[in-house]
Amino acid sequence: MTDLSDYQQVLTPNYGVPPTIIVKGQGCNLFGQNGESYLDLAGGIAVSALGHCHPEVIKTLTDQANKVWHLSNVLANEPAIHLAKALVHATFADRVFFCNSGAEANEAAIKAARKAAFNIFGPDKSEIIAFNDAFHGRTIATITAGGQPKYRTGFGPMPAGFKHLPFNNCKAIEAQISEKTCAVMVEPVQGEGGVRPICSTFLEKIRTACNQVGAALIVDEVQTGMGRTGKLFAYQHSGVTPDILTSAKSLGCGFPIGAMLCKEWISEHLVPGTHGSTYGGNPLGTAVAGKALEIINQPELLNNVISRGKQLMQGLNELNKRHKLFKTIRGQGLLIGAVLKEDYAGRSSELVTLTMQEGLMTLGAGPDVHRFAPPLIISESEVKDALTRLDRAYSHFKKQT
Ligand SMILES: *Cc1c(COP(=O)(O)O)cnc(C)c1O
Questions:
Q1: N or C: which terminus of the chain carries fewer CB neighbours within 10 A?
Q2: Helix (H) or strand (E) segment spanning residue 7
Q3: Residue 160 C-alpha to ligand 1 middle, in angstroms?
Q4: pLDDT-derived band of residue 1, with 50, 70 and 90 as boundaries?
Q5: How close is the Cα of 103 to the center of ligand 1, in Å?
Q6: 241: closest CA among 135, 97, 94, 83?
Q7: Within this chain, do residues 215 and 195 fall inside the same structural domain, yes or no?
Q8: Domain assignment present for 61
Q9: Does the global pTM surpass 0.85?
Q10: For position 127, what pLDDT does the model report?
Q11: Cα distance between residue 79 and residue 341, in whole Å
Q12: Is 62 inside any structural domain?
């Protein structure tokens, strides 16, 4: 049997050593090599929105697998057209570009915004404003856009033309945006940066500021999109319309796919030859995402996200009355972060280890935040069960302090 010592010999060590090997998933449960089971409140880092092995998604994937897998962008396929139509219909967007990951979707967004600004205003309008603690992916351009310097250390030189401002700070954006700014890139809830929701006034301020200088508003919904916050996309909670939106993670519910959605005034500059991707828009990924969108964008499912989110948030607040570990519990829908008090700062990974010992998969979001991003189909009894396990894990954490 393959084990973790094999993993350590043949995989690059950039992820550290994983705690276990999983061989099967079903609904909100994961099963390990030795028959152990876990309730999954991590959802493959906000990816497995429909849980594991959803029967309708399996059927869609296998039906498509028996038809055609890959064509390249020289040829068209039905699932890609169907998915693009559905995304356009469900959002502000006029057009969609498909790729394979969140970072690629953000690369496409950056390139599209730059190209539009170049064509409309000339070469001086190229600056991208992003925010401290933001996360936009791991490619060179997206670590540059990201607001966490640790992800950039040792990988320089970085591309020019990115500027970082404090998140949720209206004065800073007002003061720093200029005629040189071609786009502002922002997450509706900073996911990796600690599950920090955006203030509605801040998002409105960014929109106004972008309008004043002719810059594009890019919302990175790679983590918040596809129902995670209780709306199909998180920007839909606000009155603000972006120019560009990026999606990935839950878009394919585990099948790799990314998308960049945009308004016509952006897409009209992406003429033939300006951008591309070999696998982007392949029939397997777009068939799966089409089915995922169809299932997720239903009132029953989105209401479940709101109800289960409230239940989990309330439950965590109850637990915290006894354990007193967290200074705040924040988030939106089923993206929730519990922020450790100063006394326990830096120890989120211990919490993740302890919940696993209770048969519960959870996540960190940086060193200080215990994060939950379960499948959106999670049931009331499963959340209840999770809270019981969390209670035990938090007790152990207190004991080992
Ligand atoms: C995960 C994430 C990304 C990167 O997605 P990949 O598919 O890993 O490239 C980008 N932006 C946000 C907000 C994310 O959460």
A1: N
A2: helix 4-10
A3: 21
A4: confident
A5: 6
A6: 94
A7: yes
A8: no
A9: yes
A10: 98
A11: 48
A12: no
Half-sphere exposure of 334 (CA within 13 A, CB side): 36
> Rounded to the nearest whole angstrom, what is the distance from the C-alpha of residue 45 to the centroid of ligand 1?
10
Ligand 1: nearest atom to the Cα of 104: 9
Residues 115-167 pLDDT 10s:
999 999 999 999 999 999 999 999 999 999 999 999 999 999 999 999 999 99
Q: Evaluate whether residue 358 is within a structural domain.
A: yes
Which residues, judged by CB distance below 6 Å to any ligand atom, belong to the binding site of ligand 1? 101-103, 106, 135-137, 187, 191-192, 220, 222-223, 248-249
DSSP string for 297-342: SSHHHHHHHHHHHHHHHHHHHHHHHHH--EEEEEEETTEEEEEEPG
Q: Residue 358 sits in which domain range?
A: 4-53+299-400
Assess whether 239 and 384 both reside in one domain.
no
Q: Percent of the chain beyond pLDDT 90?
A: 99
Q: Could you give the number of structural domains in the chain?
A: 2
> How far is the centre of ligand 1, averaged over its atoms, from the C-alpha of 343 (Å)?
30
Q: Is the pLDDT of residue 204 over 90?
A: yes
